[in-house]
Amino acid sequence: MEESQYKMNLIKIGLKIAYYRKLQGMTQEELAEACDLSSGYVSQLEAPNCFFCPSLKTLFKIANVLGTTVSKLTDIED
């Protein structure tokens, strides 16, 4: 996978986290607290200019709190 595609996929994951968070009516701070993460970390995950790769463990925590699945958060094209 090319670097640009990798970065685009990370952006898509961040956008999906933000989408599901807002769907649940949660703030970044509320999501962070529920997942035992810092609000700065959640903010970085959702930022379109930050190519931050969360661990699988973190994705499972986030998906669980947001009432979705890791598959839906990472459903991206190759």
Summarize the structure.
The chain has about 80 residues and is an all-alpha fold.
Search tags:
78 residues, mainly alpha, 5 helices, 434 Repressor (Amino-terminal Domain)
Describe the structure.
It is a single chain. The mean pLDDT is 93. The protein has a single domain (3-73), classed as lambda repressor-like DNA-binding domains (434 Repressor (Amino-terminal Domain)). It has helices at 3-23, 28-35, 39-46, 56-66, 70-73. It is 67% helix and 0% strand. It has five helices and no strands. With 78 residues, it is mainly α.
Secondary structure: elements and pairs:
Blueprint: H1 3-23, H2 28-35, H3 39-46, H4 56-66, H5 70-73
- Give the averaged pLDDT, no decimals: 93
Main sheet specs: none
Unreliable spans are none
CATH superfamily: lambda repressor-like DNA-binding domains
Gross morphology is globular
Number of strands: 0
CATH class: Mainly Alpha
CATH architecture descriptor name: Orthogonal Bundle
Number of separate structural domains? 1
CATH topology: 434 Repressor (Amino-terminal Domain)
| Strand residues, percent | under 5%
**SSE order, as H and E?**
HHHHH
Number of helix segments? 5
Proportion of residues in helical segments: 55-70%
* Helix and strand composition category: mainly alpha
